[in-house]
Every structure is written in structure tokens, then in C-alpha cells.
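Sequence in, structure out. Go.
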Amino acid sequence: MNGDTGFAILAAMSVRQACPLIIAALGGVMSERAGVVNIALEGIMLSGAFVGVWAGQAWGPAVGIMAALMIGAATGGAHLAFTQVLRMNHVVSGVAINLLALHASTFLLRAFFNQADPPRQAKLAETVSMGWFIAFAFMAPFALHLLLYHTAFGLRLRAVGESAARTRLAGVSAVGLRASAVVVSGMLAACAGAYLSMALVGRFTDDMVSGRGFIALAAVICGRWTPVGAMLTCCVFGFFDALQLQLQGTVAIPSEFLRVIPYVLTIVVALVIRSSPPADLGSAAQD
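Output:
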């Protein structure tokens, strides 16, 4: 394999690995710009991955993707209810959703997929093209940037994240804006999970998200809570994830050490890049 071919393979792998991070990070930007901490990205991605494969095998890939988006919206709605109605701590709510998704998906995998037909799962992977997900991942950040910074809705959404109380005084429903942002956030995270199970891998496996939700959340912070900044950070993470995959078996370094590179990078970047979150992040809005 010559250098040009190796670089082309690395670039293609980087795009594939960055794609779910970008989509999930956009969900994080939406939620946190509205003032809701979304630690639950990991669990929502896992839910979308499982439901997408389950519904896709039963009724086809298109239904699988729609089902994944629906479970994402429902889980995002649950996080919204916990944090804004029941006033639960945002981090506690997110951790609870993550744990529930992890153990529920493991149980349901044993219950539903132990007798799954492998050829049918392979056909599902061939049917769902990665191209659509990748195109969406690299176009959506610019669309979201326009929405947040060049529309009245985006101005109000960012205002809620800075001060829900002042937004109420201006006659704008803080709860309604946060509800729309968190539900869309859940749908985006579930879409990222569906990409993993329905396009990248072709089947659901235990804990297949493997911390990508947390890396996406770190990308939101490192990208200064902006869509394009989060996308660029995810591309860096995707490159190092692809690099460790390509290096496995070619260098005399334990594979476990190589697999930890993206997570170490996440910590380093988060420590180096200093940014200020929305002022009202983590609060409960009232109308």
C-alpha cells in the first residue's frame, strides 16, 4: 500500500468515524444552547442504535430510521420532563438515562436478537447508505449556524440559555423553546446511533456507542457551543479514532493503548481550550 492510498483510506475512515460524533454534537449544541445539560447523549445514541436495527429488520430500513428518531424524541422528552418539570439535576437525569439505555438494550438484545439471522442483518447494512448520513453530518452544522445566529428563533433560543427569567419577561415561552431544543437534540443523537448500527456496523452489539456520546459532548464544549466549532472538533477526534484503527496490527503497540488515544485526546483538548458555557446552563425554566 503506497502513501497516497494509505492517506486516502485514513481520510475516508476519519469521515466515517467523525460522522456520528458530529450529528450527536449538534444535538448537544441545540440542548445546551437552550440551557439544558445533555449528558444523556450516550444513552440516546444507544437507544437509537437498538431501535433502528430492531424496527429496520421487522419493517425495513426507512421505518427503522423513523423509529430511531421517535425513540430519540421520546427520550429527549423524558430528559426535559425530569429537568424542567421535576427539577431533577441535569447530570443526574442524564446519567440515569444512560444507565437505563445501557442495561435495557443489553436485556432486549438477549431477548430479541439471540436468534437473529446474520444474512438479514448484513442486507440491512447494505440497504442503508452511509452517504446520506455523512452528507447530513457535514451540511447540518452550517444550517444550524444559520438557524441559531440569523433567525428570530435562534436568537430566542440562545437568550433562553443565557437567562430564562429575562426571556420570560420579554414574553417568550422559555419552557417551549427548551422543549423544542431538547426534543430535536434527542432526535439528532438517536440519528447518530442509527448510523452506527444500521450503516457502519450493520447490527446492534452490546454498548456499541462506546463513549461516543461523551466525546460528542466534549466536542460541544471544545467547539465553544457553536455548530461549526463542534463539527471541526469532531473531525479531529474522528481522525485520531481512524488513526488508531489503522495502526492496529501494523505497529508494536498494544491495541488497548491505541484504542484509548481518542479519549485521551478528548481530555487534553478539554483542558487546553477554555470557553464559557451559556450562563443559564443547568437551570429549570418557568413560564
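Check: Residues 116-123 have pLDDT under 50 and may be disordered. The domain at 11-272 is CATH 1.10.3470.10 (ABC transporter involved in vitamin B12 uptake, BtuC).
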